[in-house]
Amino acid sequence: MKDLSFVHKGKGRRGGKRYTVRWNAILDVRFPDFHDQIDVTVVNFSSGGALLHSKRLTVRNQHLVITDTRPELKLKISLPDRVLELTTEIVWYNVSSESGMYEIGLDLKNYKQEANISVEGLVKILKSDR
After folding, report:
1. 13 occurs within a structural domain
2. pLDDT tens, 40-87?
């Protein structure tokens, strides 16, 4: 049986201020033998991580967590002047009993190097674009 340690068992320990947001984004998934994408909604965000909602946690019948080979993951958020691509790793997931959606907790691996923008600046840009 595969490791099920990724099921959320309590409050996250993400450092930094969390911002409640509602951004449409794409989770880019790369396994060694194929590439695919999942539409997601970012519902909270900080420099250390993000909480996503998604209708699925698989691509081409390959589970993103319960697998022998972990995929490379990039969270792609569309900004007015570019697409922000952030290297991520799933640290937990859960199924919401209310919505039936997957809640996915991400660790943003290299936010400061990859983003070239503060979290506060990103939130301001994306909220003003609405």
Report:
1. no
2. 999 999 988 999 999 999 999 899 998 888 899 999 998 888 889 999
Domain residue limits at 110: 19-128
Q: Per the domain annotation, does 2 fall within a domain?
A: no
**Which of 95, 77, 94, 93 is CA-nearest to residue 85?**
77
Quote the CA–CA distance of 100 and 55 in Å, as a whole number: 8
How open is the CA angle 51-59-65, to the nearest 5 degrees?
Answer: 55
Residue 99 has which token pair? 């919505």
Count of the separate structural domains present in the chain: 1
Q: Scanning the structure block, which residue is given the tokens 């319960």? A: 66
Spatial contact of 65 and 6, defined as CB atoms under 8 Å apart: yes
Using a pLDDT cut of 90, give the percent of the chain over it: 54
- Long-range (24+ apart) CB contacts under 8 A made by 60-68 are 60/34, 60/36, 62/31, 63/2, 64/29, 64/90, 65/6, 65/90, 65/93, 66/2, 66/3, 66/4, 66/6, 67/2
- Label residue 121 left, alpha or beta by phi (over 0 means left) and psi (-120 to 50 means alpha): alpha
